[in-house]
Amino acid sequence: MSKEQPTGGASTFDVLMDAAVDAIILIDDRGAILRFNRAAQKIFGYPADFVRGKNVSMLMPEPDRSKHNAYLERYLKSGNAEIIGREREVSGVRSTGLVFPMRLSVGEVGREHGGKQFVGILRDLSEQKAIEEQVHQLEEQLVHADRLVILGELTAGIAHEINQPLTAIAAYADAGRHLVERSVDASPEDIHGICERIGEQSRRAAEVVQRLRKLVRTGTVSKASHDLNKIIRNTLLLFEYELNKSGIDLVFMAGEGLRNLYVDEIQIQQILVNLVKNSLDAINAVGQSDGRIEIQVKIVGKEVAVAVQDNGPGVPAILRPQLFDSFFTTKPKGVGLGLSICKNIAAAHGGSLGYTSPAEGGSCFTLRLPLEHIG
Ligand code: ADP
Description:
Bound molecules: adenosine-5'-diphosphate
Mean pLDDT: 87
Low-confidence stretches: 1-8
Oligomer: single chain
């Protein structure tokens, strides 16, 4: 049987090259293209005849293009090349000038005579990257949609939170008017005090609106250094009205000795809102009169744990494996996305979200965030 040389133009070799889905490019020790299979022609948009003999760097964008020859020379002298035998992601450039991502592996072709040759096998990753980007965008839209759904459900509480300072402002304004009209000896200090309180309450209302605007915000995750206890306290304000209405007790035990964490404030709020809302729903669904929700922040080893525990009906053992699945819901009007979104948010922060069933009954969801993220 005759031995086939890669550059010999043997037909079996050509057939094999052209059958490959990946681009296969063979170059000599000066970088000149010797072979350019059918997939390579399709991916780069050049016919084989056009590229043959030209330097392979024409297929790379800058700065790789200018560096390639020196890199090849260095390898031929030293024999050290990080790229040989490994797969890595690089950029290619098509005949149209479009730069695209590709996965490349390079091998050295051993030859008995003549100089060395190298074979590059590469796969166009543009489609895969575009799909990944699309999935990422859809995930972000879903997270945002979940926030809007929850905000919709909390409308009464939000209206109450804004209404409180507005009512106070109206009362102070009335008192001020009364003082000016009726009281002959109203001092400038009295008027000053009333104006100050009106200002305070206006700022309080403006803060609520500000917080809500952040919650409806779309866009990418923006992590910054935040006080976790403060994030939780602010979030719980949204529930004041619903808690009063339903007679459910909420106890918050802030974490001690906790320094700032590097998190996306809105997304952490979103987890809290989802968990507290679920506890309220669970307690309300069974019409319990002694409903209680406890939120405790604790440092546990290298993590900070936020446990949201309620004394509601709990999750039946048979349903627990599906708890974090998308679209798992037992509520008549539920969507079943809350917990799966929260779990993803926790993971995106390098943490986790888990469920345990307390011995005394009810549910306990624990969000864990790594302390390494402290800013
Ligand atoms: P949804 O609230 O739309 O149902 P979730 O993903 O937030 O979606 O919750 C999924 C399901 O998990 C709920 O329908 C409920 O059956 C269960 N669940 C979540 N939290 C609790 C809780 N605190 N107590 C009891 N069951 C809960």
